[in-house]
Amino acid sequence: MPARGLLLTLLLLCASANARQADTAPPADAPPPSAQSLPEPPSTPVAEPPPPDDDTGADLPPPTVRLPAGSGVIEVGGRLSVRETVDSRPDKVWSGRLSLPATRLEATYRFKKKIKAVVEFDVQDGLKDAYVWLDLPRGFAIRAGQFKVPLSLIELESSRSLPLARRGLLRDVLRDALVLTGRRPGAQLEWKCKDCAVDLKLRAGVWQTGNDTGKVDLSKGLGVVPAFRGTLTLGTVELGASALLQPAGAIDGGSHTGWTAGLDVQHELPIGRGALRTWGEVLVGRTELLTGLEGPFLTARALTGWRIGGGTRGALFVEPFVMLSALDPDRTLHQDLVWEGALGLNVGQFRHWRLQAQAEVRKAGDAVPAVVTSLEDNLASRKAVLLQMEVAF
User: Fold this and answer.
1) 154 pairs with which residues across the strands?
2) Which of 222, 232, 249, 250 is the residue whose CA sits 20 to 30 A from 112?
3) What are phi and psi of 207, to 5 degrees?
4) What confidence tens digit (pLDDT) does each residue in 283-329 have?
């Protein structure tokens, strides 16, 4: 009897094991495990390449935050600069000032390579850039909104790309005194030759007058300033030409038409893990804003910096630089030349942060017009030392 019970128990255990194996085995017509469909991984939005842009800010750091927005991408970034400036006034008294030259936030929307919209805001100075860029067939594009007038290579370049802590003399003259450069509302037609063996770009547009009221009597024009710029890139050298016309009604207190034209060159020579970068420009024109007469003026500026290291985002680098600037308010007059020399050093992590030190010396002739001597609080002749910390995010 015990033997028969033991045999019955063994039979029941074998049956139970076979049943469990049948339940866990795949059906006979099921594909092998390697052929079964596996769940697809969640899709990750891929950032689209930016559309072709102008030659300003080609060395800008990419935004650190990218957010999907429908079929496009929104990029968010900004920068913060803190500067201590110590300068000597005409009475030889030295004074210091702590400032925030840049507290910028920027948002850029991109849709494929067809549309780009940019809004850049400075906490202290208000709205900077606010424009829409639209790609058109046959190499054409249109830009409308508020952005830089395409005159003066160094004024067009982003301050994040330049080695300078500040642009100095000619920034004061071209933007503040003559109101030729800077950001203004306007519309610009752009063209890039797609079939040329060289990189050729042309830009032409109109901008709102830069006078104080922004309004112009229709009998003196429409209150717009036309400007043109063309660039030709040959290897590591870029050649540029630009021109701007100021109708009489577009100049505050002016009764004559003014014009400005210029030639410039930009070169980047790779040296090891760094690069020797050079900018040069000459602008000539006629205006009555500097001397009260419709005299011909001339400005010239050359800047070079040797970046040692860098090249990849976050890499350490050192960059000494030097700049020379000159202004002749009226080439028919004598002893009215103003010149400025600046030299300095940058140290930091490429496209992340940098510490900047810059020394300036500005000298003015005895017959410099009052408009020029009033720039920067009567500092036509001065010495200055700047220390600046800049962080990009």
Assistant:
1) none
2) 232
3) -130, 150
4) 999 988 777 677 799 999 999 999 999 888 899 999 999 999 999 99
* 302 Cβ contact list (under 8 Å, min separation 6): 278, 279, 280, 281, 323, 324
Residue 128 resides in a domain: no
Residue 130 maps to a domain: no
CB neighbourhood size of 335 (10 A) = 9
How far, in Å, CA of 290 to CA of 335, rounded? 14
Question: How far is Cα 216 from Cα 235, in angstroms, rounded to an integer?
Answer: 44
Q: Is the residue at 55 inside a domain?
A: no
SS3 for 14?
A: helix
List beta partners, residue 203: 190, 229
Residue 78 sits at the vertex; the CA angle it makes with 60 and 50, to the nearest 5 degrees, is 45
Can you give the residue range of the structural domain that contains 335? 83-100+155-392
Hunting for tokens 């602008």 — which residue is that? 283
Residue from 164, 156, 216, 203 nearest 183 by CA: 156
Overall pTM surpassing 0.90 (yes/no):
no
> Distance between CA 252 and CA 172 in Å, rounded?
17
How many domains in the chain?
Answer: 1
Q: What is the DSSP letter of 195?
A: S
Q: 293: domain CATH number?
A: 2.40.160.10
What whole-number distance in Å separates Cα of residue 211 and Cα of residue 177? 11
**Checking DSSP bridges between strand 126-135 and strand 140-148, what pairing results, if any?**
antiparallel
Percent of the chain predicted with pLDDT > 90: 56
CA–CA separation, 210 and 201 (whole Å): 26
pLDDT tens, position by position, 229-248: 999 999 999 999 999 998 87
Domain annotation covers residue 294 = yes
Per-position b or e across 119-154, b if 16+ CB within 10 A of its CB: bbbbeeeeebbebebbbeeebebebebbbbbbbbbb
The C-alpha R_g of the chain, in whole angstroms, comes to: 31
Q: Which residues face 113 on adjacent strands?
A: none
Burial-class residue 383 by CB neighbours within 10 Å (0-12, 13-18, 19+). middle
Running along the chain, 393 residues long, what does each successive block of 10 average in pLDDT? Answer: 44 44 45 46 43 45 62 91 89 86 94 93 94 97 97 94 94 88 95 92 92 59 86 96 87 74 97 94 90 84 96 93 95 89 97 97 86 70 93 92
